[in-house]
Structure prediction request, 344 residues.
Amino acid sequence: MKTTAYKENKQTLIPKRFAALLMVLVLLLGVCIIASLLFGSRAIGLADIMDGLFHSNVDTHEANVVRQRVVRTMFSIMCGVALGVSGALMQSVTRNPIADPSILGVNTGAALFVVTGIAFFHITSAGQYIWFAIVGAMITAVFVYSVGSMGSGGATPLKLVLAGAATSAVLSSLVSAIMIPRNNVMDQFRFWQVGSVGSGTWDSIMIFLPFLIVGLLIALMTAPALNAMLLGDEVAKSLGVRIGFIRLLAAFGGVLLCGAATALAGPIGFVGLLATHVIRLIIGPDMRYVIPMSALTGAIILTFSDVIGRILGSPGELEVGVVTAFIGAPILIFITMKAKVREI
Prediction:
């Protein structure tokens, strides 16, 4: 009786905690959006924000700056959502609490295919980048998972991380080998390589939007099955879950989101790791809650990091990829030490 009552109380508590957390995250995202519009190399007041947002006939420099920051902020939110959900899917599929596109080498695979496209196929537009990046991310994800699955025990968390780190190192060397002898490629690639949301435009947002929608739909559709798989493959099979198909579909959704964001913003690391890990600590492993909360948290982390980069780098800016790496690397070390890389 006590066990049943405990389970019922726990099931009631999670939706309440979810609702409270949702309100907090929406509020934090709103604060980040306002900060993103206010802060930068030039000081902007609230009156300027109102002119830039609601008075199209106002053509002052401040109003135009606000309009540019609106695009940048929307692009940052979309990339943060994509990376947050991608991290949630990758952690669930691999049962690895520190899985992240950057740690598993997926970002580096996307980068290799982009620099290859620039060097040998002369690609220049965001629409071309995105296809090369997605193909590179998918091939790398399959390769890392295959290598990590070798030997006894299958794809353990530690083996996946080691396979991702080794693959990332090799692919980074290939990127340098292609880029260094070609000055035109280096000039075009070096700004993209750091990871920045400053290059976002309405065109890139419209190119990104279909990939984001498809990836989010896949994540939400697979959430119940991923929950069943957390109980173990045998239990999931007894519940009618097609384990191989769900794992493949969820991995495809994660790589699609990561590849599209990487193509347009560059290889930004640690967002998916931080967002999903924080959410799991607060509300548990239920993917029905983890996925939307990771989306919001990823948007908050990336937008906040972009604001910090603009403030610290003023009158220029510090690219957001540098800021997320500076924040994420110590946290990754802490998580690894405390969690001992246990499976989810």
User: Anything to note?
Assistant: Residues 2-38 form the longest helix (37 residues).
